[in-house]
Each structure stands twice: as structure tokens, then as C-alpha cells.
Write a structure and sequence with these properties.
Number of helices: 5
Number of strands: 11
Strand content: 35-45%
Organism: Brassica oleracea var. oleracea
Number of domains: 2
CATH superfamily of the largest domain: START domain
InterPro entries: START-like_dom_sf
Distance between the termini: 48 Å
Helix content: 10-25%
CATH architecture of the largest domain: 2-Layer Sandwich
Protein name: Bet v I/Major latex protein domain-containing protein
Strand order of the largest sheet: 1-6-5-4-3-2
CATH topology of the largest domain: Alpha-D-Glucose-1,6-Bisphosphate, Chain A, domain 4
Shape: globular
CATH class of the largest domain: Alpha Beta
């Protein structure tokens, strides 16, 4: 059975510029999930002159509940300010089961679009939502970050620490998008972030900090606008400030 979800998103990028940036590669991975769980494949950009793109959404989050999921986006200049744009979207769900993870899937792609819009407008080409460069050697910065997170008893707990690979995990226990009680309206019950710090290839006195995010017990029945982007912003700020 086919179902649809449509809406609008306002972008700060000019329409032509955003489409060119978004289709620079065919395959995109969700910010919150590994490629095998959720990824976005641009299957048709034949109407790119009209700033319209069709996206196939794939992965285990799809296969467990849908035959296919596709999204179609069209970007047009805003009437009141042509230096910005408006993105209209329609998702098509070919269901196997009853309503399953629809909100999660929609918000994942919309968040990826928002992040792409932000990245496109950054003057710093190295800016990414899930990484940044630090002005310290990797070993020193790794020790500093682990210590800082271990001292933060209120918001996070530190899990596995791999000193050889300079990798450690952090579980968020307090944040705008989390709460102690899953039944009180929160979207996520828990979220684990794996942080890795490596030397910069061209400068060992500096390091690269990257992280991946694993969501547990997502309540896809609850509607909350931009909750993925709120989480992405909070995680980035927390890691940079630690």
C-alpha cells in the first residue's frame, strides 16, 4: 500500500547552488545511522535543470517495513529573497507492515538536507557536523577529552576506552532531546557516540576529531520537528566544549 508525506523546508542556500552541492555525489549516508541501516541514493537527476531530484532510501530500517521508499525534492528560489530557497518534498512509502519508523526516516533525510545546506554556506571548507580539527597532537588531545568527559557526571557517561586506537564511547544521559523516563514524551531513550582522534596527515602537531552516533529505542510514533538536527547540534557543541 502506498502512503505519502509531503511538506516544505526553508534553506539559506540559493536554489541552483544547493542542488549542485547536493547531487555532487550519488550516495549519501544518514548522519545518525551506518550505511547498511539507512542511506540515500540519488536515482534520478534528469530534472536537475528544474531543480528536482528523486532519491531512493535504502537500508535495514527500510527493508523491515517497506518494499520501497522514495523521496522527491524540488528546490525553488524564495519569492521574498532569491538568494535563499524553499525545498518541497514528497515521500512515497510502499508498505509491507503497518506504520513503522516513518517519522524517523523522513526526519533523517530532512536533517541530512539541513546539514548539507549549512555545510554549503560555511566559509570553512573543513566544517562537518561530525568532525573538527584540533590544534593539539592526537595523543595529548585524546587524554584531555577522555578526562573531561569522565569528569562530566551530569550529562554523559564514558564507556569503552581504546587508548591504542584513540577511540572512546560516550553515552548521553541528559540533553534537550533525552530524558530519564522514555514514557514522558522523549524521542530517544539513549544515544551512544563513538569518538576517534587521529593525527592530521599533513601536521602531527594537530589532530582530527570524528564521531559516529548510535541511537537506541527511538520512538518513531512521536512527532517533534527537527529533533535530529537538535541532537546533532547538541552533540557537536558538547564534544567541542569538553
Amino acid at each position: 500500500m502506498l502512503t505519502h508525506k509531503s511538506g516544505k523546508r526553508y534553506l539559506v542556500s540559493p536554489a541552483e547552488e544547493f542542488i549542485k552541492y547536493f547531487i555532487r555525489k550519488k550516495s549519501h549516508v544518514s548522519f545518525f545511522y551506518a550505511a547498511e541501516e539507512l542511506r540515500f541514493e540519488i536515482v534520478s537527476d534528469d530534472d536537475v535543470a528544474k531543480r528536482t531530484v528523486t532519491i531512493s532510501i535504502l537500508g535495514t530500517l527500510i527493508s523491515e517495513g517497506y518494499k520501497t521508499v522514495k523521496a522527491r525534492i524540488t528546490v525553488t528560489p524564495r519569492e521574498e529573497d532569491i538568494t535563499k530557497s524553499c525545498l518541497e518534498y514528497t515521500f512515497e512509502f510502499d508498505k509491507i507492515k503497518n506504520h513503522i519508523r516513518k517519522t524517523e526516516i523522513v526526519e533523517s533525510l530532512l536533517t541530512y538536507i539541513d546539514i548539507s545546506d549549512t555545510n554549503n554556506n560555511r566559509s570553512d571548507d573543513n566544517f562537518k557536523y561530525n568532525s573538527f580539527d584540533a590544534g593539539y597532537p592526537a595523543e595529548e588531545y585524546f587524554k584531555r577529552k577522555v578526562k573531561a568527559f569522565k569528569e562530566d557526571d551530569d550529562d554523559v557517561t564514558v564507556g569503552d576506552v581504546n587508548r591504542k586506537n584513540k577511540r572512546f564511547t560516550v553515552s548521553f544521559i541528559s540533553a534537550p532531546f533525552l530524558s530519564d523516563s522514555y514514557e514522558d514524551g522523549s524521542i530517544f531513550q539513549s544515544m551512544e557516540v563513538a569518538i576517534t582522534i587521529t593525527p592530521k596527515k599533513d601536521d602531527n602537531s594537530r589532530s582530527r576529531v570524528k564521531w559516529t552516533i548510535k541511537v537506541e529505542k527511538f520512538d518513531y510514533s512521536k512527532e517533534q520537528a527537527d529533533f535530529f538536527l537538535i541532537a546533532a547540534d547538541h552533540i557537536r557543541e558538547t564534544i567541542m566544549a569538553a
